[in-house]
Amino acid sequence: MIRYLTRRLVALVASLGAASLVVFAVIEVIPGDPAAYMLGLNAAPDTLAALRDSMGLNQPLPLRYLGWVGGMATGDFGDSWTYKVPVSDLVADRLTVSLPLAGLALALSTAIALPVGLIAAARRGRATDGAIMAATQLGIAVPNFWFAMLLVSAFALHWRLFPAGGFPGWADPVAGLRALILPAVALALPQAAILARVLRTALIETMAQDYIRTARAKGLSHTQALTRHGLRNALIPVLTILGMQFSFLLAGTIIIENVFSLPGLGRLIFQAITQRDLIVVESVVMILVCAVILVTFLTDLAYATADPRLRRRG
Amino acid sequence: MRAALALGAALTGVALTAALVSLVWVPHDVTRMAIADRLQGPSAAHWLGTDHFGRDIAAMLMTGAQTSLAVALVAVGIGMSAGVPMGLAAAARGGWLDEVIMRGNDLIFAFPALVIAILITAVFGPSALNAILAIGIFNIPVFARLTRGAALALWTLDYVRTAELAGKGRARISVEHILPNLAGLLVVQGTIQFSLGILAEAGLSYVGLGAQPPTPSWGRMLAEAQTMVALAPHVALMPGLAIVATVLGLNLLGDGLRDALDPRRSPDA
């Protein structure tokens, strides 16, 4: 396990390094002069010089790259050009919206998918299964931001149960949570549809295994065998899918924040794009990519813990 | 299951037909605004009603189908034409080449399509091309991994080994014997990536990273309709239904094709 862990850690650092090179190249090398790009055509020469200086553009490229990566490693992401505050403060502030939203959506989708997938697998081939499969097929096809609009028009505009958008902050936790319910549901349902299908397939495959037949032979009912032995083993592929779904969840959160005007990471990055604040774009993109790489790493690790055979491979 | 395949083919056919017909004919000019006719419900003159500029929604949906299908299709093309050769080469050569190709693809995998689109847009400004590139790049590792895995299995088969003993080069075997056996698999995955591409394009153009005005696109129609949901629900309903129908159709088609191409796979598993 130690050897496996070391190898995975080296790979993790290598992919973080490679990803940072890609982001740096796209944002700082391709535009030629990022400062001139950020300020546009009519920039005053002294403003341009000040920005070039604060971005460290007068230094050679390798030094700039090392400075950027070294800064990030110590939590210093530079200062936003438009907001004039450290990017780390901006991100930390926005994360208090984005993280709870993504977490809530993840919890909701798992809470829905587990029983639904279990029921479908238990009633395989019957009408219940058919109905669930049809519903999940539809759920996969629904764009989450459109679903969000439908939720708003029903639960916010018509019945007035939830706010249609905006975020009151966490000073009043109940109001904060209420503002996140509709966005979380919009994110969670399409995810739950995919997850339920994967769980059903995994369960059906597990139930064909010998140890399930043994469990049945020793007197467990079909449902008992399914929940006591099948579910545990079927969760491994579900875990993998959950890890792979993370990048969809991330993208979904960014888009859904737009529907509900939530002041999260997604809004921060779109404002930064329109204001050409490349410093913010560069850092936020790097944070998103880091998150995807880390989650993939953790999924691999969890997978290897659950199934020791995998440790021998890559 | 045959019924699902037929439904999938029919829904996909409708979307394709709408896109193709819109190349030569649409019921109304989508660039012409008629404020006096704005936010009308469905009628004989406007089958699906009009939007806030008085533009015909049916005509915009048809032209929008063009954008959606073209972006998603070209993105599948990019993914396949880069990913399949990579997967073939990785499986044929193995060793360091395999390692380099697959680690490179892991790296691409760490960049979700939305993040790629954000990066490109931040530097080059928004355009429909960004969406194509972002979704296309996102597709590359999908096809590379799929091709490599399936090709590795084929390389262990007797007739491939025989071809190698007969003196054929590994590259030639990849093209002549491996690739034809992957065709079915690639068509199925292509269909699935096509449907994912349509969802992704809708999302990107919804947040303004895709097709720009005046090019009609389903995602942007939804973004524009959002402020009028309470006033004229049909404006927000129609583009969403178009996306759902097309994506559902392609998914059913993909599942149906997979079952049809692989009789060993039980259809309900």
TrEMBL record, chain A:
PROSITE patterns xref list: ABC_TM1
Location of this chain's protein in the cell: Cell membrane
GO molecular function, one term: dipeptide transmembrane transporter activity
Cellular component GO terms held in the UniProt record: plasma membrane
Topology with respect to the bilayer: Multi-pass membrane protein
TM stretches of this protein: 101-122, 134-159, 179-199, 234-256, 284-304
UniProt similarity note: Belongs to the binding-protein-dependent transport system permease family.
UniProt main location, coarse: membrane
Domain ABC transmembrane type-1: residue ranges: 95-299
Protein name: Peptide ABC transporter
Keywords assigned: Cell membrane, Membrane, Transmembrane, Transmembrane helix, Transport
Automatic annotation (TrEMBL), chain B:
Transmembrane domains' residue ranges: 69-92, 104-125, 178-200, 231-254
Record keywords: Cell membrane, Membrane, Transmembrane, Transmembrane helix, Transport
UniProt key word Zinc-finger: no
Gene Ontology CC terms, in alphabetical order: plasma membrane
Entry membrane topology: Multi-pass membrane protein
PROSITE patterns to which the protein is assigned, alphabetical: ABC_TM1
Protein's recorded name: Peptide ABC transporter permease
Stretches assigned to the ABC transmembrane type-1 domain: 65-254
Intracellular or extracellular location(s): Cell membrane
